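Board work, copied verbatim: Zinc finger, SWIM-type, MULE transposase domain, FHY3/FAR1 family
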Amino acid sequence: MAGLMRTTSRSESENHFFGKWTSPHLTLVEFSHYDMAIVYQRYVELKTDHDSRFRKPILKKDLQLEKEASVFCTHTLFYDVQEEIYSSYTHCMSVNILHIDDVEQYSIRDMQAENRISGENNFVVYQVDFRKSEMEVKCSFKHYEAYGLLCRHIFYVLRMNSIKEFHRKYLNKRWLKNAKPSNSSVSRINVESGLSLQSEVFDLYEIFESTVDRLVNNMDKLKIYKDEMNGLLAKAKIDVPVLPKINSKDVMSSMVGVKESKEKNINNPDQSINKGIGVHSRWRSINEVEKKESDKRRTFSKC
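↓ predict structure ↓
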């Protein structure tokens, strides 16, 4: 996220972060312990990761959408999604439905939005376009475009169409538990492979990290798991061998159709004499030469 912020914003954010751990009244030794802020930040990150994996949030309704949100999303984002799902039952109602080709247009009235507006007879209605054949849904409230989370009006339309599972295209990666991979090999995934391969890789990382977290206090079982992983790695090396690296010169030779000669018959030419190469001096006028000669101190010839 730091790449999306201006330089001034990053500086102010860093000053605010480290300002909670420093003070002008500290000694030099105490001031040098500002690295405790980084340690505390890492501790909070590890704690939230642990809570997201091994603690289950409280469900308000026994719904499949709510259960899937608790599995995929972090706890903080789950409660936001849970509030939208619950509000689709308590604050939304459909007032009109239009069928245009393969698109269904729903007019959803949000009663909670009406309560926030002063005055009477203020009916806030949002339009939701739903294409069931391609599972595309779009709301005029623009909540998904702004935050990457589905709004209550979309959840209401999904419930009207008996859709009980999250479609994977609307699970934004930045809100998932496996958003941050533990290895940089994900960057080597080809973009043309699609999101399915990337999702499988993220699931593998999550399974591996969750297994290690459970076995970290049992050394015997951890060693057994390590041996099994080494066996799978050896099998993967046999099934998918590493191809030798292709030399760039061989690639160019195959494209041109000419092989590079091993002997060098053509040498680099000698350096040419261009303007400015040689004696770096300038022409001096007669007056300048005479003045320089006259400035010399005269000596007695017999001394």
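Confidence is low (pLDDT under 50) at residues 184-192.
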